[in-house]
Amino acid sequence: MSEPTPWLTVEDARREVKCGAKLLYREIRAGRLRAARLGGRRDIRIHKDWIRDWLLANAKNSEVIPE
Asked: Where do the structural domains in the chain lie, given as residue ranges?
């Protein structure tokens, strides 16, 4: 069995953070979310740490909403 990779496709990242792919592409284009481009225009990988950093940078200082 292969070791899990920390690199995500845009689709994997979208599922991970429960948002739309368009939002991720927009954030990458704006330079707010780091991404590695592999050859083609849409062949992108996002490291899990970069997703975490992006989420933390966009977190609002507000009260936690109970579930």
From this structure: 7-56
Amino acid at 1: M
State the Cα–Cα distance between residues 54 and 27, nearest whole angstrom: 9
Please state the pTM of the whole predicted model: 0.79
DSSP annotation of 60 reads: -
SS3 string, 5-59, reads CCEECHHHHHHHHCCCHHHHHHHHHHCCCCCEECCCCCCEEEEHHHHHHHHHHHC
User: What are the pLDDT digits (tens) for 19-59?
Assistant: 999 999 999 999 999 999 988 766 899 999 999 999 988 88
